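Worked example 3 (structure in, sequence out).
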């Protein structure tokens, strides 16, 4: 049996993802403003929810 690998939906960039996915929009809006600003600086490099969550987690880990 062939293994099926799930690929997350790919968006053009962060802004498209936020516009099209209400859950991601809520997640992004819940982040501290400095995290939002830092992520927006790299919006062109964020193409799926997992990448956004990883980037946010990395930024927030410095707060611990």
């Amino acid at each position: 049996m062939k293994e099926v690998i799930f690929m997350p939906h790919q968006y053009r960039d962060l802004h498209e993802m936020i516009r099209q996915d209400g859950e991601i929009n809520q997640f992004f809006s819940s982040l501290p403003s400095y995290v939002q600003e830092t992520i927006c600086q790299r919006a062109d490099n964020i193409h799926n929810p997992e990448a956004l969550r990883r980037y946010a987690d990395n930024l927030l880990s410095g707060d611990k």
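Notes: Helices lie at 14-20, 22-30, 33-40, 49-61. The chain has four helices and no strands.
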